[in-house]
Amino acid sequence: MSGFDQTLLDEADETVRVRLIVNGRKVTCEVAPRDTLVDCLRDKLELTGTHAGCEMGACGACLVQIDGRAVHSCLVFAVQADGATIDTIEGLSESGVIADLQAEFHRRNALQCGFCTPGMLVNAQELLSRVTQPNREEIRDALSGNYCRCTGYETIVDAIDAVAKARSKGGGAA
Amino acid sequence: MSAPLTSLDRPNSYIGRSVPRPNAKRLLAGRGRYVSDLKLPRMLYAAFLRSPHAHAKIVAINSERVRAVEGVHLVATGADLAKICTPWTGTLDHFKGMTSAPQWPLPLDRVVWAGQAVVAVVAESRAIAEDALELIEVDYADLPAVVDIDSARQAGAALVNPDSANNTCFRSQLDSGAVDEAFAHAAHVVEEEFCFGRHTAVTLEPRAIVADYDPSAGMLTVHHGTQTPYQFQDLYSRHYNIPEARVRVITTDIGGSFGMKLHVYHEDMAVVGLSILLGRPVKYVADRMESFVSDIHARDHRVRARMALDAKGGILAMDVEDLTAIGAFSTYPRTSVVEGNQVIRLIGAPYRFKNYRATLEVIFQNKVQTSQYRAVGHPIACAVTERLVDMAAAKLGLDPFAIRAQNVIADDAYPQTSPTGYRFEALSHQACLKRLHEMMDYPTLRAEQADLRKRGIHRGIGIATFVEITNPSPAFYGVGGARISSQDGAILSLTPSGEVRCMISVTEQGQGTEAIISQIVADQLGIAQEHVKVVTGDTEVTPHGGATWACRGAGIGGETALQATRALKRNILEIAALILQEQPAALDIVDGEVVDAATRKPRLPIAEIARIAYFRSDTLPPGTQAQLTVSHHFAPQGYPFAFTNGIQGCALEVDVETGLIKLLKHFIVEDCGRVINPMLVDEQLRGGIVQGLGAALFEECRYSETGQLVNGSLADYLVPMSVEMPDIVIAHVETPTADTVLGAKGVGEAGTAAASACVLNAVNDALAPFGATINSIPITPAKVLKALKRF
Amino acid sequence: MVTNLASRLMSRWISEETAVKARAFSYFRAATIDQALDAHARAGDDARFIAGGQSLVPALSLRLQAPRLLIDITHIDELRGVRREGSHLRIGALTRHCEMLSEPLIAEFAPLLHAAAPFVAHPAIRNRGTFGGSVALADPASEFPAMTLALDAEIEIAAPSGRRRIKADDFFIDLFETALQPGELITAIHVPLFKADQRFAFDELARRRGDYALVGCGMVATFTGERIDDIRISFFSVGNTPTRVKGAEATLIGSSLDPERIAAAQGALEGDLAPLDSDEVPPAMRLHLARVLLGRLLGRLGEGA
To answer: Is NADP a UniProt keyword of this protein (chain B) (predicted)?
Structure first.
């Protein structure tokens, strides 16, 4: 395999086809190499639940799962994700895996404007998949890159704490 | 005020109950519909070339090279837009003598702050528009920039507006008299100069707008992330000369606002013009760096204040000078002098004293505009007052609780008029103070502090009382000539299925407006909350009103909903009475059923009344016209504002070697009158407190000497994040206003109002053993270490 | 997370023209190191390698950099994996920051990296950012480049002319400038195995969790009893490069960690460090914080950290 084809250099504006598994479905998407994953998800696939808050990895609003790990979709070009499995807030909602988190957030009003919420949920799900019984400090630490201007964070921590306890008791369902 | 409003044991009783927000589930599922999500057919994207200079003349703009870029539809300059848009001026008549230069969507010949939008490009994607921006050349001739407030005030200073004599925007003075005498005879005087950094709202969703002008219909539709759609309908209509009925402003979900999104922004106004020029939808979403240089900033005050006290610690008088710099223009249409005005009027508000004098000076400079952001003026007034009270307590050897208990206006002494002219209907400082003392377990905290101090751990405890302005009447803006409504309207319908649709002028930004309105409607009509659909934020659907600002949603919007519901209920019972051959007064509605008022025996579902009225009106007595839709407007009367009050406390730890501060716990006792939904009120308080804590420790827009914002990104401007924020303990005292049936006042600013003052007092408390003091916000490690002379 | 470079440039650049969408570029995904080097060689200076991209993507989005070609190296198997090689741990360049926390070999044989990892930005950044990328960028405010100095690590580099290894001591040259030449690739970092007679300590002072530190420091020391035989102390956020403090190290070697020695080491920092001025942290303050941090870490080391 010779690999690199020099003509590529003259085709910076050309779109390329990427194949992804998004929320459990195979999709192909025509993107320019410069399109970030968050733009691809929002504009091309119309998955607008993933939000762009700073486009430099400092706010956490754009978190999605790539191959099961929470990642900033603004810090990945869509072409880099070719072949990857991506789960967004829409998919996590529809599959029901975060239903308990969503119910607890709702019950405690752990959101106001809702713009940070998908990122918070993706991050919370990641935390609870790695640590079954995080304490409040660990929860706050896990959320350290997720900015929320509305809530003051406490009820978000409360909600995740409550779900962690319920899940480790074997409850878990909403 | 009537008893049933709080009896939670009866059916459909929702006022006072913590019910989750019905509309929050969408947001949790990623199904929010924010303006930044919106995509319309044939929509184009705008981007703006911005000024690198704080002050410069625009010599020439060359956009020739952009023509070659595929996908670019329009390049527009200030001159292009000035042909279709009339300028605006950010002054109001009741601020006598204030000045501000006229503003256009894009500057005509001069840029006045670094980051000001200069040229607009409209293209098929944001990326292409940005490609085009790189090809535009603007030739600037530097002008002297006015950056520092002191140099701005010097005689012969460079001028922000060359046509004016100096850089003064506005001056104001309050004087209740005999202040000098009071100070001359005082046993004690404390004095300090305070600095409050510039900060900004940093909503997680930046400003977003989609303007969609249809030339064939002469119709402008604007999807706008704002709190105040009616205000913008009026402004777009007047400045673009389109009949008001042909301007529609729609606000859907909005990713935070906090006052920042109710001002006129140059880019937003430009986008409307770009859509008119192109006859196509044009979208603009500020990126984060653009937000930092173009969203309004706030605060940036320097206050010199002194307080006179008698020998026992009774406050006698205050004397205040507030100096603030607001950028190059006064913001339209609310102006940029309101913050200063509220600072000098709110100082000392919790306390009983007579002699007050204050001057306010508002200065132009070459920075982005400041204007109203959450808790306008309150944090400054509170910090100045409360720090002086603590300084006085220290001087007299009094405990901070004791000096406040001695000086707050007694709960049974209302109504009162403050020395600054504010009229207080009823406040509860004494009750709040007492409750906070218990809640903090204050003696234990103090004992713990003393113990830890011996081991070299330096904790601080701070408290701060506050007064908040809510439910503003036309005295706020209307009297100054602003077309900003202080009334709200609601249109309430019983639907054919017996549900209720409420279209109301107050808007939702996540605080729970729609939830509390549905609670009030369900409560007052006697139906289940899930049968109430609340519709907000569309000028073509919802009636004209003030919408959401200055803590008016619950107090004014809520009362509007209450009165509208009572009117609808009367109409329903009239029809019910005809059907049931009863007197309306003998009937009531419980859980969607018309019941016998005395026995509560169900008589007829309201769904049946709706069915008959809509589909079988022939079975009603001749001449009956069922009115199952009512409209109602409510404008606040009585007191010009409904003041609220409360007190906050905090415990923190200062690392005296590093200057880092750890917040341990925060407390608040708050009185917002009738609490409609305790959970939502608590969340307003928590969120507000954390915004105040951010201001206290982290947030500041820092500028270089040449007027460049040096920390304009989310990696550099430090917002409060989860690890650094404490848990917050909340309690309530309820003193409803008698001006409305509902009795609710606002709560949106309360948290922010006193949080930074609390921290300021607590840090000074922690540093007291070192003789070090802090008088400036944000309290950075550098300031702490400087105060401690560590470097 | 945007780099410090981005932050520094932003104030100058922001007002000129904002951008959040990268300039157009071509993308090539390399399957082997040779393919990657070949692509770079043929594209010339306008090519950039991308690994985790947690600093590079924002730099491109903000148009602080605008290469014609982006060469994705994340699918090159040779760059992966952590394994023992004799007296060293070979940490593949693509090892993600989160793996520094989860990989048992790291915890056992490079505990300093394990201790530093939680301080690197935020969890989602750590899920994607790579060790090699961090070292290659050489952000003077980053944890890992500085730790390679404390660990006496060697950087393994693939160049068109062949492979070579370079000591961390010789790798960091100036602000974002390293011994890595354009077109060269870090393939792995070799870290001497942590030994039973060694102790380490790490901490940083930051205003918020995950922020770039006001000052940060990591150290590894070899003891005989309580006597220090050897110590390497490296600071970050103190200047243009990650910085070893050889003067302070010298005051400690051959002694035990008594308060006088610690004070002497703190005193030596003035000669070791020349903090830059910044609008929020004056040099004298940074030096003060470095002294405080050094004192605390040496205290912990003395307690057997």
So the answer is: no
User: Where among C152, C168, C192 does a domain terminate?
Assistant: C192
Q: Do residue B43 and residue B9 come from a single domain?
A: no
Cβ distance C279 to B702 less than 8 Å, yes or no, reads yes
Model confidence band, residue A85 (pLDDT cutoffs 50, 70, 90):
very high
- Residue C56 belongs to domain spanning: 21-72
Per CB-CB distance under 8 Å, the chain B contacts of A104 are: none
Do B514 and B568 belong to one domain? yes
Query: Is any Cβ of chain B less than 8 angstroms from the Cβ of A112?
Result: yes
pLDDT, one tens digit per residue, over B339-367 is 999 999 999 999 999 999 999 999 999 99
Question: Do B575 and B449 fall within a single domain?
Answer: no
Q: What is the pLDDT of residues B584-596, one digit of tens each?
A: 999 999 999 999 9
- CATH number of domain containing C82: 3.30.465.10
pLDDT in tens, A27-61: 999 999 999 999 999 999 999 999 999 999 999 99
How close does chain B come to A79, measured CA to CA in Å? 16
B776, β-bridge pairs: B195
Superfamily of domain A96-168: [2Fe-2S]-binding domain (1.10.150.120)
Peptide linkage before B778 cis (omega within 30 of 0): yes
Q: What is the pLDDT of residue B81?
A: 98
For chains A and B, count residue pairs whose Cβ atoms are closer than 8 Å.
Answer: 176
C278 shares contact with chain B (CB less than 8 Å)? no
Residue of C8, C9, C14, C27 to mutate, interface with A, max A Cβ within 10 Å:
C27
Kindly determine whether residue A3 and residue C32, on different chains, have CB atoms separated by under 8 Å.
yes
Give me the CATH number covering residue B99: 3.90.1170.50
Query: Are residues C35 and C86 located together in one domain of the fold?
Result: no
* Sequence ranges of the domains in chain A: 6-92, 96-168
CATH topology of domain A6-92: Ubiquitin-like (UB roll) (3.10.20)
Q: What percent of chain B has pLDDT over 70?
A: 99
CB contact under 8 A, B791 and C23: no
Please tell me the predicted confidence (pLDDT) of residue A8.
Answer: 83
Is B163 within the bounds of a domain? no
Burial class (CB in 10 A: 0-12, 13-18, 19+), A173: exposed
pTM higher than 0.90, yes or no? yes
**Residue B549, φ and ψ in degrees, nearest 5:** -170, 160
Read off the pLDDT of each residue in B500-529 and give the average, rounded to a whole number.
Answer: 97
3-state secondary structure of A133: coil
Report pLDDT for A173.
44
Question: Do C175 and C224 sit in the same domain of this protein?
Answer: no
User: CB B618: neighbour CB atoms within 10 A?
Assistant: 7
pLDDT of C251 strictly over 70:
yes
Q: Which chains, if any, share at least 3 CB pairs under 8 A with chain B?
A: A, C
Closest residue of chain C to A139, computed from CA coordinates: C123
**Out of B36, B512, B721, whose CB is closest to A147?**
B721
Q: How far is CA B92 from CA B298, B358, B475, in A?
A: 19, 21, 12
- Minimal CA–CA distance to C154: which of C170, C174, C139, C143? C170
For residue range B448-464, what is the model confidence (pLDDT) as tens digits?
999 999 999 999 999 99
Q: How much is the pLDDT for C1?
A: 39
The whole domain housing B756 covers: 297-474+638-787
Segment C89-107 shows an average pLDDT of 98
The yes-or-no verdict on residue B4 having pLDDT over 70 is no
Residue B274 in any domain: the answer is yes
> Do the domain assignments include residue C186?
yes
pLDDT digit string, tens, across residues B289-345 = 999 999 999 999 999 999 999 999 999 999 999 999 999 999 999 999 999 999 999
> Residues B14-17: contacts with CB within 8 Å, 24+ apart?
B14/B518, B14/B519, B14/B520, B14/B522, B14/B523, B14/B529, B14/B676, B15/B519, B15/B520, B15/B523, B15/B674, B15/B676, B15/B742, B16/B674, B16/B675, B16/B676, B16/B677, B16/B678, B17/B519, B17/B677, B17/B678
